[in-house]
């Protein structure tokens, strides 16, 4: 029977809808999403992950798991309940143990929740939070996770980029346990929601939750870059500078341009390593992956590792002195010129943001 | 204290890869291979900890085909004391690699295991987290700074997270995965390369380690990503703004 379904699947791969309905016959889909929240609200990446969960099958049920402590957790839970119409349940784990997202207790928690309610899929976004925790969860469950999923073809078939996005790998999960995925959120954009619906919120009983004898991890602190600009991962416009900016001072021009266009600032590894900007602005294979409507690169040569992070941008603009820079091969509009002349001219001539 | 460092042999980061015409994978025949850059950083950090007097021995481990010995020799030339090569002719999922590393850790009893945060071929970013889970050890991923406590019971680690930096303190033994900015790996000098030839590389097989090999993920096909349509070179800022406004409609 199973074999027959698998063969049949191959025949209808080109027809996504039929494919999903056939998969549904063989498996009931219930998804647990490990949610990310901050100061009382749910992060946009988590909502993208909910969107991705909907691609797993038509009749899937989606539960959001929020862990943390205190009033901001409850606030976030109430917001999570109405963040997307397909969320059917919000589970809240309120304990001092979850005050900070330490991988050890959080991975244990996901396993704890899974033991009580059976889930076919466990998801998180492939942010630094999800990447840190979900592989640990998968190992506890003795299953192989699929990380950085960019496309969902069915309940157990996915596409993920490999080799810095220079190849796409289609994989099939064949394990018996839950399928553990992290989602590249830029591939699952959130469309504005008109329908309003409130999911049920339930508190998880943690009286039987056991950690290892002593938790040997301790949160010390965090240094966040406070910025008023939009978040790099979800901005509509991203302006990036490379090593050619030459100094922290000059990088301010990039910031000004970003402000004018209502965009976020990104940087290459070279610019980060040179100390022009903090490392959380790095765009590329090992930094943030962006997919804005407009991506403008100034003084960026276009190394493979950087291109891996920008390839899905709608419009790519490159300004570089070197006409042979690889960035021009992916740019929709290229301008060969000195960025120290081009940026001020752009600042002067570009229309104000709407 | 002993430090175990896992290193992977991958297609060199500067190589432009080619997808095989039969879509079974990426062509790795006659392609330059090197140590995964994140693994180099992991090894460098272990060596620095040893040089600071906090560790006695640095052991490099690689799992894969016979050619992994070259990668291990590179590691020995950088300064690792000895190496372990777990021979395997097929490639494994990170879960299996994590299980092999766990078995090795059970035998070697290291105080720290260093890994790169991800391999630049499969881009998985999983192995370190999975080893930590299997061992029940704390983990500090994406490390950009590692400071060992004097009594050697704790490592204070700065982690590169989405909003900036996060600092954790993890009790040893622990698993640490390295980010790009942790350090600048050294080059192996010629005398050290010569010396590395006489350092021991222990061969082990999967049977020795009694690891159950799990293959719950099947690669259906590997394809090239869609090509972007070729762009245009504009001659002036005015033309650029005009295109962005009237052709692309993005400003």
TrEMBL record, chain A:
**Cofactor requirements of the protein:** FAD
Q: Does the keyword Metal-binding apply?
A: no
Keyword Isomerase annotated: no
A GO cellular-component term linked to this record: mitochondrial matrix
- Any GO molecular function: flavin adenine dinucleotide binding
Q: Which residues form the Electron transfer flavoprotein alpha/beta-subunit N-terminal domain?
A: 31-213
The region annotated as signal peptide is none
Pfam families the record matches: ETF, ETF_alpha
InterPro entries from the xrefs?
DHS-like_NAD/FAD-binding_dom, ETF_a/b_N, ETF_a/FixB, ETF_alpha_N, ETF_asu_C, ETF_asu_C_CS, Rossmann-like_a/b/a_fold
Subcellular location(s) of the protein: Mitochondrion matrix
Which annotated residues bind FAD?
243, 268-269, 282-286, 299-306, 320
Q: Which UniProt keywords apply?
A: Electron transport, FAD, Flavoprotein, Mitochondrion, Transit peptide, Transport
Q: How is the cofactor bound?
A: Binds 1 FAD per dimer.
Record's family? Belongs to the ETF alpha-subunit/FixB family.
Q: What does this protein do?
A: The electron transfer flavoprotein serves as a specific electron acceptor for several dehydrogenases, including five acyl-CoA dehydrogenases, glutaryl-CoA and sarcosine dehydrogenase. It transfers the electrons to the main mitochondrial respiratory chain via ETF-ubiquinone oxidoreductase (ETF dehydrogenase).
Q: How does it assemble?
A: Heterodimer of an alpha and a beta subunit.
Protein's name according to its UniProt entry: Electron transfer flavoprotein subunit alpha
What organism is this sequence from? Brassica campestris
């Amino acid at each position: 029977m199973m074999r027959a379904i698998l063969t049949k699947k191959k025949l209808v791969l080109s027809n996504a809808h039929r494919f999903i309905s056939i998969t549904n016959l063989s498996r009931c889909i219930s998804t647990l999403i490990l949610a990310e929240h901050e100061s009382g609200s749910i992060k946009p990446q988590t909502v993208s992950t909910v969107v991705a969960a909907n691609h797993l099958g038509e009749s899937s049920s989606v539960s959001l798991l929020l862990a943390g402590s205190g009033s901001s957790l409850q606030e976030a839970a109430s917001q999570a309940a109405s963040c997307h119409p397909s969320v059917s349940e919000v589970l809240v784990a309120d304990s001092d143990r979850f005050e900070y997202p330490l991988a050890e207790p959080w991975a244990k928690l996901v396993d704890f929740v899974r033991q009580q309610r059976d889930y076919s899929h466990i998801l998180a976004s492939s942010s630094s939070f999800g990447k840190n925790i979900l592989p640990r969860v998968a190992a506890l469950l003795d299953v192989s996770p699929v990380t950085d999923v960019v496309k969902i073809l069915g309940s157990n078939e996915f596409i993920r980029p490999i080799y810095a996005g220079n190849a796409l790998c289609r994989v099939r999960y064949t394990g018996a346990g839950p399928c553990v995925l992290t989602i590249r959120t830029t591939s699952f954009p959130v469309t504005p929601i008109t329908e309003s619906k409130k999911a049920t919120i339930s508190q998880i009983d943690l009286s039987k939750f056991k950690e290892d004898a002593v938790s040997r991890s301790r949160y010390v602190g965090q240094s966040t870059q406070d910025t008023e600009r939009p978040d790099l991962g979800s901005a509509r416009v991203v302006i990036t500078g490379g090593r050619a900016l030459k100094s922290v001072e000059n990088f301010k021009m990039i910031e000004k341009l970003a402000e004018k266009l209502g965009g976020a600032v990104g940087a290459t590894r070279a610019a980060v390593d040179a100390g022009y900007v903090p490392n959380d602005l790095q765009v590329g294979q090992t930094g943030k992956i962006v997919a804005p409507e407009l991506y403008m690169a100034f003084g960026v040569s276009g190394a493979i590792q950087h291109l891996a992070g920008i390839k899905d941008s709608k419009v790519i603009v490159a300004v570089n002195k070197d006409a042979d820079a690889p960035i021009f091969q992916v740019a929709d509009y290229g301008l060969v010129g000195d960025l120290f002349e081009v940026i001020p001219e752009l600042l002067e001539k570009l229309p104000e943001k709407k | 204290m002993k430090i175990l460092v896992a290193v992977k042999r991958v297609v060199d980061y500067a190589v432009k890869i080619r997808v095989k015409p039969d879509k079974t994978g990426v062509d790795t025949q006659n392609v330059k291979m090197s140590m995964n850059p994140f693994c180099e950083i992991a090894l460098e950090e272990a060596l620095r900890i040893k040089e600071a007097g906090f560790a006695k021995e640095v052991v490099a481990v690689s799992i894969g085909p016979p050619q992994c010995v070259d990668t291990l020799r590179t590691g020995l030339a950088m300064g690792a004391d000895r190496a372990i090569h777990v021979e395997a002719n097929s490639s494994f999922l990170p879960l299996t690699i994590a299980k092999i590393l766990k078995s090795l850790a059970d035998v070697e009893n290291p105080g720290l295991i260093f890994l790169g945060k991800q391999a630049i071929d499969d881009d998985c970013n999983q192995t370190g987290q999975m080893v930590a889970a299997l061992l029940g050890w704390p983990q500090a991923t994406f490390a950009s700074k590692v400071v060992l406590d004097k009594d050697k019971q704790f490592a204070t680690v700065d982690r590169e997270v989405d909003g900036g930096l996060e600092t954790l303190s993890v009790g040893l033994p622990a698993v640490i995965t390295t980010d790009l900015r942790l350090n600048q790996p050294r080059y192996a000098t010629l005398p050290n390369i010569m010396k590395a030839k006489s350092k021991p590389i222990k061969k082990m097989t999967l049977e020795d380690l009694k690891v159950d090999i799990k293959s719950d993920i099947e690669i259906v096909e590997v394809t090239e990503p869609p090509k972007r349509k070729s762009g245009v070179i504009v001659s002036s800022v005015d033309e650029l703004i005009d295109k962005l406004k009237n052709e692309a409609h993005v400003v």
